[in-house]
Each structure stands twice: as structure tokens, then as C-alpha cells.
Amino acid sequence: MNSSSPYFIQNISQGLVDPDQVIIRADAGGEGEVIYDSAISTVQGLWPATTAYNETLANGTTVVGPLNGYQYILIESVEPDDDISLEGWTDCKTFTNSTEQFYASPFFKAKEQQSSQFLQALAPYLGGRPAQFENMWNIYDYVEVQSVHNATFAGEIPPAFVQQARDLANWHEYYVFSSPDPNSINTVAVRTFVPSLTEYINRIANSSDPLKFAYTAASYKPFISLFNVTGVAEMNTTFAGVVDFAASVALEVRTSPSTGPFIRFNFKNGTNDLSYNTYGIMGSASGDVPIQTFIDTLSPIAIENLPQWCNLCGNNFSRGCQYLQEGNVNADTKGLRWGGSVSPVGAGFLGAGLTVFVVGISVMVGIALGVLRVGKARPVRRGSKASSGELELVGRAEKV
User: Domains of the chain, with CATH numbers?
Assistant: First the structure.
């Protein structure tokens, strides 16, 4: 939001947030409150408190917002039971079966054998947790968090063990959430997000649309799948794993008189990177691809709605799939939306609550987007799961 920054989003409101220019969403699922809290912290930094956040009353008195002008920016809490877009793998039996098949494969067994001696040496530091390669992400998660927040633990564990655990976790998670086939169930973490992503990009590229900035906070898993299906990990193997805390991807929407609108892929891997760097994507070493190429590449793998997801995942028991009966449920491209018939008595009890819910959704639909960023946010509470992250969509349209 700094006009002197090379990443400044043109024509975005500075100081006071313009709710028609931004959309903020945060995963409120398996990682608990960490991701949502990270989103709150981010928007506080982008739009800090200001005395300009005020109103003049009829009697001439000027009233500044609470907390010296704290800006209450709307953040949509994305609940997995109501929306599949940010946690496409949860309760997906097909994904679970694919993971189990991977664990039984000779490829996995060979890596498991190679790592067995290290895991035996690491076991005394795991507090009784199983030192099994199938559990590699949770092992690294525990070791990393303890090494940062527990001085006794950090002084006892051999320094090289943390990095070794990270390397094995990278390998484990990359092959669980990626595939040579973009349509594989392994990439479901990004396939459920593609409809939102392409919508955001199209709106940013549309000069008549007020959308300027979109921020979506999510776990690290969509990162891995995104890097896989866009060819980023293939062009740069450092992306074949879990991003660092506070990492972010910025997909910039730019325009050129000669080439038209295009996407630029930028990445900043946490606080250790001082600035964003541009990396190759979809076979383009420059990091720039035409918007239409980007959309045409991703659209065929998109999971567009809840019925499609339920069928693909073999789910008839949760996340709204159990209610998919004719006339009872409607689903849109971003997840689950209730629209079924209820009895007159039921309508009497539900009316007020449903009105509030629909108004909240309508407000979010009316909010705009800008640049796309994907990032992993460090948990702010000691002992919080290290696997939480943020997916930040930031978009801007400018001429180059």
C-alpha cells in the first residue's frame, strides 16, 4: 500500500480501506484459529488505525473510530463444513485412498528404508510420538515448533536433525499433494481453489471492476499443489516442498500495449527473503504468461462445485454431501450454499439467522480483488501447529 513500493497496486485506496476494492478470506478449518488470526494481523498492517476513520455527527461533533481509528476490515471465515475451496482434501476418501496407495508403493518404501536410521536417532526427541515415515510431516512440525519455542529442547537436539526432518517432510508432502497428472486427486488442494482464483484474475483484469486486492489465508497444502500444476516446481526444484513461514506468492495482473494482459509470478519465501523474486511458470522462464494461457491451463482441472467434489471424493457423509438431495441444497463454484426448502415451522425458526447469513455472504461477494499472493504465516502462539499458512491473493493492473 506504499506508493513508493515497486509492488504498489495502482489506484488502490491508501490510508482508509475501500471495501469495494478488497476481498479477504481465511481458512477456519483444521489449523484452528491460527490462520484466521494471521489474516487479522496482515490486514492490520496493510490498513492500520487512523484518525481519518471518523464520522461527523449532525451536531458537528467528529467521532473517531474505536482504538484510535482501528479499521474493522471484513474477513470471511471459510468454514470447511460450508465451503470446500480451501480444504479440498478433508474428508475426501479418494484422496485418502491415493495417499495409502502411495505409502504402499516401492517408491515410498525405498525412501522409508533410507530414512529409518535417522528416524531411530530422532525418536528420543519426539516425546513418545511415533517415529514412522508416514508421520513425517507431524514429526517435523513438532521438532520445528519445539526448537523455536522450547529452549531446553533446542539445546538437546542435534542442530542438523531439524533440517534433516525438514528435508524428509518436504519430500513426503510434495508427493502427497502433487502428481504428474494435474487432474489427479493428489492436487485437490488447489483444484477446489481454481474457480476462485480465475474469477479474481478476470475481475482484476477488467478495468470496469473495482477489485484491486485479494488475500486468502490457507494452509501450506494449496501451495504445493499450485506449484505443481503450474510447472513452477518443475522449473525450480526448490519449490518441491513446504514453503517457509510468512512466505507469499504474488500473481500480478499487468497489461502491455503489445501483448495485452498477463500474469507475473513472484515469490518471497518468508522473512529470510528481503524482497520478491520472479520465477518461471507454465514453461515461461521470464515468469510472465498471458492471462488467457494461465486460465486455459488451470480451468480444465477445476472442481467447480460441491456435487462434483462429493462425487470425486466418494463422500456422502459430511461437508454438505449428506444433504445433496434434489430441492434441498444448491452449491456455487466456491463451495456450499444452502438454498433448500424448509417447512413453514422451520422457516419461522430459521428466518432471522438465515437473513444474517445471506447478508454476510452478499457483502463478501460484493468485495473486490486485486493481486494474488500465496503465503505461509507463522503461528503466533507457542505450541500452535506449524503447518498453518496463508494464501494471499494480490492483484494489480498496470501498463508496462
Answer: 14-54+63-89+192-400 (3.40.50), 93-176 (no CATH)
Residue 21 or 382, more confident: 21
Distances (CA, A) of 317 to 81, 162, 248, 264, 363: 11, 39, 35, 40, 30
Determine contact, residues 357/77, Cβ cutoff 8 Å.
no
In which element (H, E) is residue 353 found? Answer: helix 344-366
371 phi, psi to nearest 5 deg: -100, 155
Beta-strand runs (E) in the chain: 22-27, 54-56, 62-64, 76-78, 213-217, 247-254, 262-268, 277-278, 288-290, 329-332, 335-338, 372-376
Q: Are 52 and 15 in contact (CB under 8 A)?
A: yes
- Dist. CA 344–CA 356, nearest whole Å: 19
Residue 325 binned pLDDT confidence (cut-offs 50, 70, 90): low
pLDDT number for residue 216: 86
C-alpha grid cell, residue 3: 506508493
pLDDT higher than threshold 90 for residue 158: yes
Q: What number of other Cβ atoms are within 10 A of residue 233's Cβ?
A: 20
Average pLDDT over every residue of 264-284: 91
Cα torsion angle, 209, 215, 219, 221, sign: positive
* Separation CA 287–CA 282 (nearest Å): 8
Query: Which of 370-390 are b and which e, b meaning 16 or more Cβ less than 10 Å from the residue's Cβ?
Result: bbbbbbbbbbeeeebbbbbbb
Helical packing angle, 291-298 and 194-205, nearest 10°: 160
